[in-house]
Design the sequence.
């Protein structure tokens, strides 16, 4: 990667040098294996990336934990009041979101979506121990040691754990830190693109400045390892995402119960093996989970963007058949099925469990935003590794990059 | 050839189903916002004007000196003895209460509205349309005569709209012919043109169900929620006074032209989805085609169905957002058909000549939306498709709101996809400020008679 003067881009632009050294460092002990090799410094800058994006695939996608704790007798109202106060005020890496909802049978529902290991949830609860302890103290058998003590909180979660038969997630690849870093990266890239449009002659300087601030973000897209990213992070308040919780009553009919179990089991198989994801059609949905409990209770918990009416319509017009397969086994499901939007909305509203507390590490971004940002981050990785070093070629390569990725910019 | 009529057109006010197509609109308008001091005065006022209220049948039978219609606020209905329980919350609570949903924030926030629109006294709106100013004057005189017979009834404020002399009768200040893409309403008796309904797989267009615009009929959900009086044959108007920042709009299209095509007209067309003539980009994506614009058999006959990449018409263009048709990256067809609106508009203020510097004048349009459900139609489109990105799965950046009416506070942007490269307009600001607005119920003539005699 050198131009006619014999100087490399990295010589002139120190941020790229850092970038390249990150690449080399990946092969040091302690980094996940299977990520791409650093580009050969002697190879021509115009050669397409030699190493495909294999390192981006097969991410151990987000996991779900759900617990159901019995609330002490006579404590429901007091608990509901307490849930209006502070609950999850401290961010902790590796937890995407969490919720509390009081079920109508005197139970407290807790859900979380996390990366890789349940330890992330334990650390999240520990970070918020003061509030979390106050809340679970309203429930039976909460350990005295509280959430400060990882062993205690771990066994408490395990004792109250509920099965999740089926889970969908919209973006399988990125972990929680990568989601927010990807979104920040896209925002910063757009600022860079604006600067280039205003003064194309300074493109290399502008790109170096962009890399200076975003190098780690780009590398993180390949590493899937966020030890390097800031652990201190303030959750941005936002109103774009909402948690939806619903408990449905399954028909007291063994055939319906068997059918439901089979449908959820089949769905699980399809999602986890063939990777067909029915909610891919549902562009506003981040996550959705189903739990079949006590034989006749069907729990549904989702996280979605924007307007409730839009959400209901998406369900009703995009995946009504799949919905009927599941909830058609439940009491009160619309006679004409999910395609009857008005009846569907009534059913959903009748069976909703108000979500008392919802925390998200990225409350201000939509599912589409995340998907596009993450795709752009991956593309930037390839671009940065292979970009030519003289301003003119760099500019043409940049235009080609913009063109190839324009769908990710609007 | 007109279509089969199965609506009681003689009972439906003219403004609900007539005059919204750009070649049918009248070039002059007056809107008088009045208050009622007492039930007796209110009834006297309505009774006196009742014989002049134009129905769709009247419109079809040939226009008189002026076309007069009457709309009511919740307060107006209550004063006339009509309880508003059962009316939609958006109407009952008023447009200002819906600011968050509508994106009426910043310079468009209700606190910034002109005083008349913030008045709590508004009871009724007198809508006048005419082919000349003399007609408007005659209508206003007639309204004042009615006020004279109804002690205490007052005009709180009034608005006057006029088409521009010497320009296309349907032009607005940004230079576009307005009012082309409209729904065809089933049973309305109008001539259906290709592209006015919902695209069907076989290439035809299904009419929009009457109940989406006229209460008392089946809507696009298959429901008839308001079969009886006082609703039957009524409708709702969302009335908005929209200031247009013409100089800023031209500056922005010049900036886009400098970054891309070098053609300001083209960049302006990409923001709207149609050329200034009205020719749709989906059919004329390289050069304007005025003949296409004037041909009712062609000017709406497109679907975006082969333009998933947005190369012909950007995903974010105003018209594509507002009516995504069969856009493969858009909402489902069922969603599209449920959220159609009829639009009326008429300009106010002087046209700013091309090339002229910003003179700071007040100019814009009175924008009126006809719909059976303000919440489900106008507000839904405004919230999810204009001030959100949910009209399209191709739009994912939350700052990419509608380039014309989106709540852009200077930090927005517009991406026009291109074969060679995208053209990006940066620093998108509001081009439209809301100066005020109100929801009005447009009762049937039957209900008007009942209100007048209660």
Sequence:
């Amino acid at each position: 990667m050198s131009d006619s003067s014999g100087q490399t881009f990295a010589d002139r632009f120190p941020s790229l040098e850092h970038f390249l050294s990150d690449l080399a460092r990946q092969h040091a002990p302690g980094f996940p294996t299977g990520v791409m090799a650093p580009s050969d410094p002697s190879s021509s800058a115009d050669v397409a990336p030699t190493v495909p994006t294999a390192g981006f695939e097969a991410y151990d996608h987000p996991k779900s934990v759900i617990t159901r704790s019995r609330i002490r007798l006579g404590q429901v109202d007091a608990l509901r009041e307490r849930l209006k106060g502070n609950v999850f005020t401290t961010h902790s890496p590796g937890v995407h979101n969490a919720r509390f909802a009081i079920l109508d049978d005197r139970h407290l529902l807790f859900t979380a979506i996390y990366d890789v290991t349940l330890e992330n949830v334990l650390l999240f609860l520990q970070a918020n121990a003061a509030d979390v302890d106050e809340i679970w103290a309203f429930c039976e058998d909460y350990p005295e040691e509280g959430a400060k003590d990882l062993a205690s909180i771990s066994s408490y979660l395990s004792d109250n754990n509920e099965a999740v038969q089926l889970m969908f997630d919209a973006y399988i690849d990125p972990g929680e830190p990568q989601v927010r870093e990807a979104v920040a990266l896209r925002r910063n890239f757009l600022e860079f693109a604006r600067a280039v449009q205003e003064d194309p002659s300074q493109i290399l300087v502008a790109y170096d400045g962009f890399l200076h601030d975003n190098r780690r973000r780009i590398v993180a897209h390949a590493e899937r390892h966020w030890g390097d990213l800031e652990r201190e992070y303030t959750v941005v308040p936002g109103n774009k995402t909402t948690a939806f919780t619903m408990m449905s009553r399954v028909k007291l009919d063994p055939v319906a119960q068997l059918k439901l179990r089979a449908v959820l089991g089949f769905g699980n198989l399809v999602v986890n093996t063939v990777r067909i994801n029915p909610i891919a059609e549902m562009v506003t949905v981040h996550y959705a989970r189903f739990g079949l409990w006590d034989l006749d209770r069907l729990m549904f918990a989702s996280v979605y963007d924007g307007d409730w009416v839009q959400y209901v319509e998406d369900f009703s017009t995009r995946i009504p058949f799949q919905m009927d397969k599941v909830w058609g086994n439940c009491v009160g499901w619309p006679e004409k099925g999910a395609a009857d939007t008005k009846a569907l909305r009534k059913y959903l509203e009748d069976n909703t469990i108000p979500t008392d507390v919802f925390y998200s590490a990225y409350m201000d971004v939509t599912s589409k935003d995340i998907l596009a940002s993450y795709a752009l981050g991956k593309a930037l990785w390839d671009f940065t590794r292979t970009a030519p070093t003289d301003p003119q070629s760099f500019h043409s390569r940049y235009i080609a990059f913009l063109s190839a990725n324009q769908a990710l910019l609007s | 050839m007109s279509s089969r009529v199965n609506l009681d057109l003689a009972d439906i006010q003219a403004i609900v189903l007539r005059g919204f197509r750009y070649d049918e609109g009248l070039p002059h308008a007056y809107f008088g916002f009045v208050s009622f001091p007492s039930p007796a005065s209110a009834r006297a006022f309505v009774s006196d004007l009742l014989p002049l209220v134009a129905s769709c049948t009247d419109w079809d039978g040939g226009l008189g000196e002026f076309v007069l219609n009457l709309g009511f606020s919740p307060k107006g209905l209550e004063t006339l003895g009509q309880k508003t329980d059962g009316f939609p919350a958006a109407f009952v609570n008023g447009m200002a209460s819906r600011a968050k949903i509508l994106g009426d924030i910043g310079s468009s926030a209700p606190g910034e509205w002109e005083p008349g629109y913030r008045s709590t006294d508004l009871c009724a709106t007198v809508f006048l349309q005419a082919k000349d100013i003399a007609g408007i004057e005659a209508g206003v005189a007639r309204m004042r005569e009615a006020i004279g017979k109804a002690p205490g009834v007052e005009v709180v404020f009034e608005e006057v709209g006029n088409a521009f002399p010497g320009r296309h009768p349907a032009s607005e200040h940004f230079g576009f012919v307005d009012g082309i893409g409209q729904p065809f309403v089933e049973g309305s008796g109008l001539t259906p043109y290709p592209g006015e309904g919902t695209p069907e797989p076989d290439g035809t267009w299904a009419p929009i169900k009457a109940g989406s615009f006229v209460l008392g009929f089946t809507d696009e959900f298959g429901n008839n929620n308001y079969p009886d009086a006082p609703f039957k044959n009524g409708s709702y108007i969302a009335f908005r006074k929209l200031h247009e920042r013409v100089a800023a709009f031209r500056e922005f299209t010049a900036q886009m032209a400098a970054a891309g095509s070098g053609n300001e007209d083209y960049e302006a067309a990409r923001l709207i989805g149609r050329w200034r003539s009205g020719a749709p980009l989906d059919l004329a994506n390289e050069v304007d085609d005025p003949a296409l614009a004037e041909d009712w058999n062609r000017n709406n006959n497109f679907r975006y169905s082969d333009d998933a990449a947005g190369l012909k018409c950007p995903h974010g263009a105003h018209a594509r957002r507002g009516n995504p048709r069969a856009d493969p990256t858009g909402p489902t067809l069922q969603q599209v058909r449920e959220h159609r609106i009829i639009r009326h508009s008429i300009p106010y203020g002087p046209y700013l000549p091309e090339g002229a510097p910003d003179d700071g004048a007040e100019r814009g349009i009175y924008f009126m939306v006809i719909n059976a459900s303000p919440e489900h139609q106008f507000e839904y489109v405004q919230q999810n498709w204009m001030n959100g990105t949910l009209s399209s799965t191709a739009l994912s950046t939350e700052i990419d709101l509608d380039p014309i009416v989106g709540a852009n506070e200077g930090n927005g942007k517009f991406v026009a996809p291109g074969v060679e490269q995208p053209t990006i307009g940066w620093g998108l600001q509001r081009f439209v400020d809301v100066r005020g607005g109100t929801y009005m119920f447009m009762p049937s003539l039957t209900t008007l008679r009942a209100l007048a005699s209660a």
User: Anything to note?
Assistant: The longest strand of chain B covers residues 432-442. The first helix of chain B runs from residue 14 to 17.
